[in-house]
Each structure stands twice: as structure tokens, then as C-alpha cells.
Design goal:
The complex is a heterodimer of chains A (186) and B (147). With 186 residues, chain A is an alpha/beta fold. Chain A has six helices and seven strands; from the N terminus they run H-H-E-E-E-H-E-H-E-H-E-E-H. In chain A, strand 1 and strand 2 form a beta hairpin. Chain B has six helices and no strands. The N terminus of chain B is likely disordered. By secondary structure, chain B is mainly α. The chains are: A alpha/beta (186), B mainly alpha (147).
């Protein structure tokens, strides 16, 4: 009886450790590496869809609602200095190409809502803005810092490349214009 | 009289106002994943400013935390709330600790029970005998003392 009890305890302990190990393996395997990395490897990637609260008014913003139109998707935060620098680039792109169907969509993340709204007002950001305080969309896209910009064609696929850093920077400016052009001709 | 009455009423309310210092160890910076008191990241500074503004308005600590959770999600709190599924985060470590204590106590008890008792060999005078090494060393020391 005592021996059987001991054996049962040993089997339970081994099963518990094996279970925890399996859980760890599953967690690592299921962890999505993010769309940006796949895009960087040249894979064809569908833009992860999301539905978020609007920052610039009541209601929600759904990425799926923009299917059929090219989208410039920009991740930003009011605490990020380069985001302030690049805001005029995004605003002028929105104003110049919206008649051709282009949508510029800003996703504000990890931000105090009031500060983000003030930032948007101060920087005359009139394009649609979504609020993702908890940063739920970041891992889907593989966003590592602000600002980052993605390009989504009318079929909802990511195209061109992910641009990291401010769009006002020399290294990003020309590439940004090329990607917008690619979107408009898609 | 009116002043005294006003102070009596205002006293407890003022004391109940939260402070940034009292809260910054309980709120996380969402980008750096540390508590606010250990972070100087821009977003942490923003959240600190938000807490200060709300604390100055004497909004309760619970209300400020609710507002932060509404914006950043439950992960903004350093400790999970004591409600619903979040209770698991409090109970599991306690359960683990108790289980560990029971297992260790049982093992120690069994080990002490099964240990063979060592009975010292007794000399003819009833005193415990020295082991051979100690006896030889004692003889050497005595011989040197006598010599």
C-alpha cells in the first residue's frame, strides 16, 4: 500500500513537470512572430485586422472597413518625438491622395488618451486615428517601437516594406513616397 | 465654530486623497514593463502626470486605477485585481508554497524517523569510548607531555 502510494506520487510529479514543459513548448510555438518579420522575408502577408476605439471621436475604427482602398498604417504615440516630426508628412500625404482613395490611418498605442488627443490637435492630424492603449495590435504586426509605418493594398495584403523611424528622415522619405506610389498603382 | 466644523469635515477627505508617491509602485509603465517608480520612459512620465492631475482633483485611488485600466488594460496594474479569474494569480503561489511546505515537512519527518540510531560504544567505566584516531592522537600528546 505504502509502495503504491509512493509510486503514485512519483508518477504525478513527473506528469506535472511534463505538463508544464509541454505548456512552455506550446506557448513558444504558438507565439506569432508578427507580420513585419514575414514581410521582411518576402512572404505574402495579409494585414492583421483589428477593431479599435476612435481617438478622434466616438465609435470604432475597423481595418476591414477599408478593404478595397489602399491604406498607409502608421503606429505612433504622443510620447514619441519622431512622431511629432513625421506628422506633417502623413497629413500632407492624406490631403494630397485621399481623392484617389488613399487612407492614412494612425494607431496611437501605450498612450494616455487625453495627451494623445492634444498631440493630434497640436499637430493638425486630420486623418483617421485609432486608440490602442493596451497595445493589442503590436504583436500581430511585430511593432517594436514608435513610429512604424505599413502599407496595405486594396486586397488587404501588406506590400512594400515596414518603415521604422520617422518618415521625415532622409533614409525613409524617398522610400515612403515610393511605397505610396506602389499602393496607388496597385 | 464654522471654521472648526469645516476643518472637521475637510480633514478626513483631504487625508483620503491619493498621491503619486503612494501609487507609482502599483502602476506599470506599459512600454518598459517596470513600475512607474523605476521608470523614466516618456510614457511613464505621462502616466505620472495623469495620476498627479487626478490626485490633485482628489479622485480616489481606485477610480484612478480604473481609469488607467480603461485606457491601458489590466496589465497596467502591478498586482492583479482581487476579483474573478485574477484570484488565481494570488491563490496559486500560496497553494504552491503550502504544498512545498507540506512536502518538505513530510520528507524531514520521515528522514528523521528512519535514520538508524548510533549508539556509542561504552568503556568498562560506562563512559563512551574514543574512536581509534582520537585515541592515538591523545596517546601521542600525552607521551609528548610526559617526555
Amino acid at each position: 500500500m505504502k509502495g503504491r502510494l509512493k509510486l503514485a506520487a512519483q508518477v504525478s510529479s513527473v506528469a506535472l513537470v511534463a505538463g508544464l514543459f509541454a505548456l512552455l513548448v506550446w506557448k513558444l510555438a504558438a507565439q506569432d512572430e508578427g507580420a513585419a518579420r514575414k514581410l521582411g522575408r518576402g512572404e505574402i502577408v495579409e494585414a492583421p485586422v483589428f477593431r479599435l476605439d476612435r481617438l478622434d471621436g466616438p465609435g470604432e475604427v475597423s481595418l476591414a472597413a477599408y478593404r478595397g482602398r489602399p491604406v498607409v498604417l502608421n503606429f505612433w504615440g504622443s510620447w514619441c518625438d519622431p512622431c511629432k516630426e513625421e506628422a506633417p508628412v502623413l497629413e500632407s500625404t492624406w490631403k494630397r491622395y485621399r481623392d484617389r482613395g488613399l487612407v492614412v490611418l494612425g494607431v496611437d498605442f501605450h498612450d494616455v488618451k487625453g495627451a494623445a488627443r492634444s498631440f493630434a490637435r497640436e499637430n493638425d492630424m486630420s486623418y483617421p486615428l485609432a486608440y490602442d492603449g493596451p497595445g493589442n495590435t503590436l504583436s500581430d504586426y511585430g511593432v517594436t517601437a514608435a513610429p512604424e509605418t505599413f502599407f496595405i493594398d486594396p486586397d488587404g495584403m501588406l506590400v512594400c516594406e515596414r518603415l521604422q523611424g520617422g518618415l521625415h528622415l532622409e533614409r525613409n522619405r524617398a522610400r515612403f513616397e515610393d511605397c505610396v506610389e506602389e499602393l496607388l498603382t496597385a | 465654530m464654522a471654521v472648526v466644523a469645516a476643518l472637521t469635515v475637510a480633514g478626513p477627505a483631504a487625508a483620503a486623497c491619493p498621491t503619486l508617491a503612494g501609487m507609482e509602485g502599483e502602476v506599470m509603465c506599459p512600454t518598459c514593463k517596470t513600475t512607474l517608480d523605476q521608470s523614466d520612459a516618456p510614457v511613464a512620465r505621462q502616466i505620472k502626470a495623469f495620476i498627479e492631475r487626478r490626485a490633485e482633483a482628489c479622485v480616489s485611488e481606485e477610480q484612478i486605477k480604473d481609469e488607467l485600466v480603461g485606457q491601458f488594460g489590466p496589465a497596467v496594474l502591478a498586482a492583479p485585481p482581487r476579483e474573478g479569474f485574477h484570484w488565481l494569480a494570488w491563490l496559486l503561489p500560496l497553494g504552491g508554497l503550502l504544498t512545498g511546505a507540506v512536502v518538505v515537512s513530510t520528507l524531514v519527518w520521515r528522514w528523521s524517523r528512519n535514520r538508524p540510531a548510533v549508539k556509542p560504544t561504552l568503556e568498562s567505566n560506562g563512559r563512551p569510548a574514543l574512536d581509534p584516531d582520537a585515541e592515538r592522537r591523545l596517546d601521542r600528546e600525552l607521551a609528548r607531555f610526559d617526555g
